[in-house]
Amino acid sequence: MRVIYGGTFDPVHNGHLRLAVELREMLAVPELALVPCHIPPHRAHPGAGSQERLELLQLAVAGEPGLVVDDRELARGGASYTADTLRQVRSEVGADEPVVLVMGADAFAGFDRWRDWQAIPELAHVLVVARPGYAFDPDSVPAGLLRTRGCGSAKELASAPCGLFLYQALPLLDISATAVREKICKGLSPRYLLPDVVWQEIQRRELYGFRLPQGNL
Ligand code: ATP
């Protein structure tokens, strides 16, 4: 089984990383791939460049063999459409291996506005992680997909290569990249919201509005 967890990771934080660890263990897979986007089609321009976001993510997972970073969206260039990413993955793994695309409920709420979204369940299962305080509009297309094509447990995902939707509650940390960026920009400390090594690199590169004290360069 291949598990793909995409995002902007602007920057990666402990909420993303804990989710990745919890999922890898729940799905009992040897590794889970974090896939940073190059150009996100559905949101504002990220605060850091794609190469910087990628390198911060690589620092964050170094030494954690169960988590790997897949840079295919940067290598492909252009807008990062998930359907294109999954087509590439599917062509590598063949028709029979289960592929699981992971996203938070906030991301899934806009699923039917993604380019070529109908192709996605033909290529992968979709595992939607509940986010605290986030509820779907019951009349929305994504809520309908969970009702009509939803499955009851992670075990079922192994029984088919694609096509199932699973809504899964997991223990989550209430951290967002927006909150991390805002703290840094205001000169507040984001420590313990993200790995120290990532925070140190953000400071070294003066990302997200952080400025080193003069004379410290
Ligand atoms: P932003 O605040 O900039 O929107 P974010 O923290 O939501 O960023 P993204 O890179 O946009 O991070 O998210 C990638 C994926 O991770 C999305 O599917 C999102 O739902 C999920 N996610 C983000 N933060 C958490 C968290 N604390 N716990 C679990 N999942 C999360």
From TrEMBL:
InterPro entries assigned to the protein according to its UniProt record, in alphabetical order: Cyt_trans-like, NadD/NMNAT, Rossmann-like_a/b/a_fold
Catalytic activity reported: nicotinate beta-D-ribonucleotide + ATP + H(+) = deamido-NAD(+) + diphosphate
CDD domains (UniProt xref): NMNAT
Domain Cytidyltransferase-like: 4-183
Top EC class, one word: transferase
GO MF term (any one): ATP binding
EC number: 2.7.7.18
Stated name of the protein: Probable nicotinate-nucleotide adenylyltransferase
Lineage: Bacteria, Pseudomonadati, Pseudomonadota, Gammaproteobacteria, Pseudomonadales
Gene coding for it: nadD
